[in-house]
Protein: Aspartate aminotransferase family protein
Amino acid sequence: MYENKAYMKTEGDINLTDARQAWWGDQVDDAVRSILQEDEDVFLHQTLSSPCLNVLSACEGIYVEDAQGRRIMDFHGNNVHQLGFGHPEVIAAVKQQLDQLSFCTRRYTNIPAIDLANKLVELTNGSLSRVLFAPGATSAIGMALKLARAVTGKYKTLSMWGAFHGASLDAISVGGEGAFRRGLGPLLPGAEHVIPFNSYRCVFGCQDEGHSLCLKPIEYVLEQDGEIGAVVVETIRNTDVQIPPISYYRRLRELCDKYGALLIVDETATGLGRTGTMFAYQHYGIEPDMMVLGKGLGGGVFPMAALLVKEELNKAQEMSIGHYTHEKSPVGAAAGLAAIRVIEENNLLAHANEMANLAKLRLQAMMETYSLIGDIRQIGLLIAVELVTDRVTKEPAVRQAEQVMYDCLEQGLNFKVSKGNVLTLSPPLIITAEQLHEAFDMLEASLAKVENSKSIQ
Structure:
């Protein structure tokens, strides 16, 4: 059973369980089942997608709608949905750009791309002043790795086990999720890994608030190896929501400077307001050497990613670091500009923090009521609810987490399960207090149902 294969319980819930089979049997009609079969017959099978859960027919705001007409609050959204889905200002900007300049041929540039690049630089207060665009964040990670080699002359990297930086061969090399890496070696040489920070299940048993022991392996590798050119980290671990303390990142910045390694932060899933600031690294008062953006940069409409770097790294004139076909997509840039404009003009950062406070109160009350909840981790509107069978032993409640997920889906709430037992909730930044309460009512009803069934067994 997959429950015994920890490497499969990482990025999200999988489609190999009895619960998934039961869902298909109970929740989809014959017409939808036929479409799902067509999908299964034509797409390559992989654990996190085909065979798929369901068929979607529409999306708007915080909702997706399935082929049977059921509206579902989406707290998953592949993290592209800061503005929800189909935001009218983003759609209008894309339509206008399609009519004006739909593609930019290589060797040329265009005003939307320049404007978006300048806007992103402005949002970093000018600390990251050079930009490259790409069709997806996986490609942007690849650009960052190439630039790090070019600038430092070192090919080695240091990153975290359990991290996700994309699904291409170079990205899975610095990534640390077994479901993406296993059976695919040899990967990039020099991609070193250490045990990641984990506030709830700290391997090192840190007793201090700064988790200083968690930094010891990083310092040891940087010192002993001497040839690490870059440290690659997700500023906030998105799937199970690991939030290092301020002192952790400030010390990491010091270590990178001391041993000549560039600090690359991957904000693909956490940038653009998800954590309550425009970029997650801004919580820590540090400046990375590079930052990768993606997902929500295209406004939930268009695939768009970016690499932002410090001025002193602009040293690869004789190389092609990116040079992708859609590198300076005017349509993608128009979507990105519109998304940022909506965030700023509608004060969505302040609104997200207000909704985060509401969520915190509801979740604290649930934790006091339901022993299934072992830990709650939250920053902005990025939330992890970790389920355990016992709060003392912290035994992961894998079966119960899956039950909660499918029960919530049946009620009309979508989220993903990470690490097998962590409910990962990412509401759109546009969500209202009423909608948030409605979603948490569904979650609480599911927790009560599953916990009561557990006590009866």
